[in-house]
Amino acid sequence: MNFNVASPETNEELFEVIAANQGRNFRFGAGCTDLLIELKKQPEKDLTVINLGYLNDPQFNSIENNDGSVRIGALVTANRITSDLTIQERLPVLYEAANQLASGQIRQVATIGGNLCTASPAGDMACALVALKAECEILSANGKVRVVPIEDFFTGVRKTDLKENEILRSVQIPVNNSGEKVHSGFIKVGVRRSMECSVVSLAYHIQITADDIITLAGIAIGSVAPTIKFASSACEYLTGKRFSEIGSSESEEFATKILEYASPISDIRASAWYREEVLFNISKSIFE
């Protein structure tokens, strides 16, 4: 592989490098776990990689537990996410997604920003963040910031809403601190047990009152459509129900509503039929 590397250490240097490469072929890299594989398969001519690994800015590389939200910088690794107690306790779906990402070695360097900006429909942490209704904080080279819902961040297969002069700085996740319990998790099905992209994935985050009433639900599905999908009608179906009273008929109705958002394809890893069957079954299973 042959490419130029720029390694900004401050925001000012980052802005300068982005501005200098407008109209040219450049890519951002942090852990580079996806980028290096892509470039090995398909080298790019006259490429500059803007290496974010030396960037010294807490807004890019820290986890902040605020009142009612968790803010995660784009350069935070999957390993750091799995070590955060608030995420473990209040956002199990994100903890499990990060913990199932590739191998332990890769989790040490793979970043949440890279997982999002790769925009793969099989992105593990991305699927969890869609279920959590996270928001993406986007920074432009002129210092302006805009915030977009994560569903709007993904515009197609490996395509995002980022403009040429923009970079993802962080994601912000709402956290319920009212004491409601959560039924939250991430299910990933692949053709082998490790180092595998999902054939189907399901992220769910359900909030339940002390009286057993579901007050909020977030459901997202991966690898079964061009982008990760938020299953709104399935969430609406659950809201207001008693969690303990969801039986087999309700779980099947719930799973049927999730399938409304799936448009899987057949490829080398699985057929469309298989993906739909697996999605239906794992959707039912979250109430067992």
Walkthrough of the structure:
This protein has 288 residues and is α+β, with helices and mostly antiparallel strands. Helix content is 33%, strand content 26%. The chain folds into 3 domains: 4-51, no CATH class; 58-174, Uridine Diphospho-n-acetylenolpyruvylglucosamine Reductase, domain 3; 181-285, Enolase-like, domain 1. The chain has helices at 11-20, 35-41, 58-61, 78-83, 85-90, 92-99, 104-107, 112-117, 124-131, 150-153, 232-238, 248-259, 272-285, and strands at 4-6, 26-29, 48-51, 63-66, 69-73, 135-140, 145-149, 154-156, 159-160, 166-174, 181-189, 200-208, 214-222, 229-230. The strands form 4 sheets. The protein has a 5-stranded antiparallel sheet. Helix 12 (248-259) packs antiparallel against helix 13 (272-285). The longest helix is centred in the last third of the chain and has 14 residues, at 272-285. The chain is globular. The chain starts with a strand and ends with a helix. The model has no long low-confidence stretch (mean pLDDT 93).
Query: Could you give a short account of the major beta sheet?
Result: 5 strands, antiparallel
Output the CATH topology of the largest domain: Uridine Diphospho-n-acetylenolpyruvylglucosamine Reductase, domain 3
Q: What is the count of β-strands?
A: 14
Note the overall shape.
globular
Rg on CA atoms, Å: 19 Å
Mean pLDDT: 93
- Strands in their spatial order, largest beta sheet: 4-5-10-6-7
The portion of residues assigned to helices is 25-40%
Give the N-to-C terminal Cα separation.
49 Å
Structural class based on helices, strands and sheet pairing: alpha+beta
Number of helical regions: 13
Residues in β-strands, percent = 25-35%
CATH top level label of the largest domain: Alpha Beta
CATH architecture of the largest domain: 2-Layer Sandwich
Order of helices and strands: EHEHEHEEHHHHHHEEHEEEEEEEHHH
**Poorly predicted regions:** none
How many structural domains can be distinguished in the coordinates? 3
